[in-house]
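Run log // design_07
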């Protein structure tokens, strides 16, 4: 088993199935980490924070002091600072703007009849949305994309995956750039507050103290990486699932109200985030095996979402699956803060792509190249072709 091979990163499911059916808790000796593969075990590792801490010790380097890697009580306080911006109600207010950005991005490509969905659309939309929420000008989007990839690739350092050292140094360079950039923007917000997330971070207090620049940088990085790579994969993976199944695509085109449940099924069937990280606080018994204190634990969300104990016919992609209690957004106190936003972005993106791109097909028969970050699933590039269409303004 090579966890890092391209083949595994493109389709890890046969390996998960083999591992899960032989033992739902598995010690990976070369990396000295413990994988948890079944639905119940993954839910426990994600939610039982008395036994499993989010403050992990990476195989290489040191864990950043971010919301994602914090335990209560600090986690509760950090999460409260940004929670309001991500409620279903706040996110619903973003809908017109997300629609506009999606239309503009498609307008840039639609006359060409081909594009790289990952680079030209799915990678850009979520970055532009989170940049606007933070209060950062869209002109800087190329820089953001570079930064968000460098942050997402940090997962390789946690697991000690291939290329980890190089990715650590790429992140250090990106971090230095982000520090300089933020120092300027935060100075401007202190002088002239705006109605954006950066201003909220500048004003926020934890235990009566303002956040340090380093803590603000932590938030910035979590939001940038969590808000982009993941939703990009959701959109790309959805298009892959639909194009592989023409009957489902036709069904969706005929009944667009199936789209929300189709999105949930993509989240389950090709989970954009495949794994998270925890550390055993003490010796913890799971399914009769003892994970020793201090060891890195990897709840494999992608495998849990295909567990036959939980899902009927888990290898079948079913756009109408109901119920669908997948754990693609995690579970418990760290449940994805951005879930309502990701769902909104995916709904708008996919309804635009399906309604505007006629004759949509994959442009290459080659197996797609997986993204670099260790714990995500999705293509680095996804060339597609379609009948050239008209820009929305021209279409009237
Ligand atoms: C399809 C898209 C997405 C997926 C699959 C996803 C998945 C996840 C998962 C599995 C977690 C739990 C981590 C854990 O338990 O350790 C998480 C946490 C988080 N997500 Fe998402 N996410 C997505 C989109 C977003 C978006 C759009 C944002 C915001 C802009 C976001 C922000 C966050 C934040 C801030 C956390 C940390 C919450 C905490 O630690 O309390 N995510 N996400």
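design_07 sequence
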């Amino acid at each position: 088993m090579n966890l890092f091979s391209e083949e595994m990163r493109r389709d890890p499911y046969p390996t998960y199935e083999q591992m899960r059916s032989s033992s739902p808790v598995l010690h990976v000796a070369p990396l000295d980490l413990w994988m948890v593969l079944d639905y119940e075990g993954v839910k426990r590792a994600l939610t039982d924070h008395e036994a499993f801490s989010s403050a992990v010790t990476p195989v290489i380097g040191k864990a950043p002091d971010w919301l994602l890697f914090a335990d209560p009580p600090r986690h509760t306080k950090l999460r409260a600072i940004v929670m309001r911006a991500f409620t279903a109600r706040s996110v619903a207010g973003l809908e017109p703007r997300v629609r506009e950005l999606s239309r503009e991005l498609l307008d840039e490509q639609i006359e060409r009849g081909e594009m790289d969905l990952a680079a030209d659309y799915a990678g850009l939309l979520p970055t532009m949305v989170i940049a606007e929420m933070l209060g950062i000008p869209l002109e800087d989007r190329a820089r953001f994309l570079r930064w968000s990839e460098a942050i997402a690739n940090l997962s390789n350092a946690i697991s000690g995956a291939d290329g980890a050292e190089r990715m650590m140094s790429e992140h250090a360079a990106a971090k230095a750039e982000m520090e300089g950039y933020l120092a300027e923007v935060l100075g401007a917000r202190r002088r002239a507050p705006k109605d954006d997330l950066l201003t909220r971070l500048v004003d926020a207090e934890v235990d009566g103290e303002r956040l340090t620049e380093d803590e603000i940088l932590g938030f910035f990085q979590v939001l940038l990486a969590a808000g982009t790579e993941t939703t990009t994969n959701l959109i790309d993976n959805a298009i892959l699932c639909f194009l592989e199944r023409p009957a489902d695509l036709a069904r969706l085109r005929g009944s667009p109200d199936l789209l929300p449940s189709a999105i949930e099924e993509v989240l389950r069937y090709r989970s954009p985030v495949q794994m998270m990280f925890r550390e055993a606080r003490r010796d913890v018994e799971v399914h009769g095996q003892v994970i020793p204190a201090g060891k890195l634990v990897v709840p494999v969300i992608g495998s849990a979402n295909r567990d036959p104990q939980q899902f009927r016919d888990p290898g079948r992609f079913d756009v109408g699956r109901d119920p669908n209690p997948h754990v693609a957004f995690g579970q418990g106190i760290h449940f994805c803060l951005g879930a309502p936003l990701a769902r909104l972005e995916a709904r708008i993106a996919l309804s635009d792509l399906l309604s505007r791109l006629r004759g949509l097909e994959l442009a290459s028969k080659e197996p797609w190249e997986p993204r670099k970050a260790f714990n995500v699933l999705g293509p680095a590039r996804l060339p597609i072709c379609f009948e050239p269409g008209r820009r929305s303004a021209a279409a009237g």
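DSSP finds 18 helices and twelve strands in the chain.
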